[in-house]
Amino acid sequence: MRASALPTAAGGYALGLLAGLVSLWVTGAWSAGFSGADEPAHFLNTWFVSLYARQALGQNPLAYATEFYLHYPKLSIGHWPPAYYGLISPVFWVLPASSKTALAVNLLVSALPGLGIAWLLHRLAGRTAALAGAALWALAPLTLEGFAFFMLDQPLAACAFAAAMAWAAFRNDPRLMWVLLFSCLTAVAILIKGNGWLLVFVPPLHIALTAGWRMLRDWRLWAAAALGALLVGPWYAATAGISADGFNYSPGPAYAVHALLFNLEALAANLGLALPLAAWGVAAEWRRRRDDARRWSLVAACVALLIASLILQSLVPVDLDARYMAPAMPGCAVLAILGGLDLLERLPRLAALAALLLLVPGVVHLAEREPKLGFRMEEASAGAVGAWLVDGGSAAEGAFTAAMAVRDPALRDYAVRGSKLLAESDFMGRGYRSKFSAPEPVLGELRRLGIGGVVIAGRPGVPPEPHTALLRDALRSPGSGYRLAAVLPFRGRPGATEVYRADRPPTPNAAAIRALGVPEKLVRAEVRP
Question: Does the pTM exceed 0.70?
Fold first, then answer.
């Protein structure tokens, strides 16, 4: 990065931080805590890595993970790779392990693409364009949502954009250090989240766009590819079956077309006018590609990143979700600004109107966005010792499990999930059925396990699952041995978390709880709402 670009890059990062703070304020995420199905799993994975490094480093990590899961069954390393958790886990050595700390880290990491966008556009079009590109990306609905949730898509987007720029640098200056940097960043991205495999498509796409076929004979390219395979191969060889369990669809042409259309619609919804401007920018830069090959190489890296994102999400039938387009967003912002500049040279009077229209998706999103749901599980878990049961869906169960786990670094207590104890379904929540048909056996199960408290999250207008209704009836029945100790209204949305405590806290039946076991492949993620 040239020294002259440093202030502009810092300004782009600052714009990302500012947008993130606005998102946290508008959504109420700072006080809401975790409410997404995956958020508490990512938090718990980070807490697990932090504990392992402090307490059990050198021991068999699989054995430690198994022990951890028996106490807090929301651990999901295996379904997700460990890189991001390992990178940020030292934060929990110096700061409290809490949702607020996690969201603060998320804010700092999620703003990083703004730095890269500003650096690239400063080089291609100047300072004003650079800051406009960073603002366009930061105010996209997808980006704003990313600031409010502790997820893996934001660090993946930052890593993927940096990797694409490293590859463009290698194309412009074929030295070993650049291609090794690309290889290492690609490996990190893949070990952050499986979507990082999209970077494998970037080199061939970029070579095709820049007619750089001679690069295929460069030994450095293949040496870097071998290094990347060496870094990621062992992990994915060991966990491929676990990752495949999360597929929601069957692969094939029908899914590919459906996914492609969905993801294009997601980009259009998030970028608005910026998407056709991005297409215009690609066309304009393509016409001038022979005038400045180095410039076109940088632009082509953004195009390759966009196409690679669409290819991967069309081939891998994991799910349909707009956030999977997060890695494409920084490049789209760059292309949109370049397209806008080219168009404004032809129609300068449209400058002010175009600038306003580019902000429409983000402004509308913030105006219409409901507050983030807050289960208040950190309060519900206060004083929870022994064995506690939590019920109310994957998100609520995960939030309570994570809150209880950070209060118990010695792994003395147990969290039991109602959706697993009292019901059964497949990995993705399909084929649900309650294991019980009456309140009495449910109460007998609580007594058998020595459950000292029960937490239930319920929303008005959302019928409880059959096992949840049985659980509530059992707790409220005369002589149940449990009393309603607190009702905590949700933050931001209707609903409440109910906290029941045993009249005489029993001794946990550790043997019976541990006999519930771990999944066959140990660690998985539940995405059922």
Answer: yes
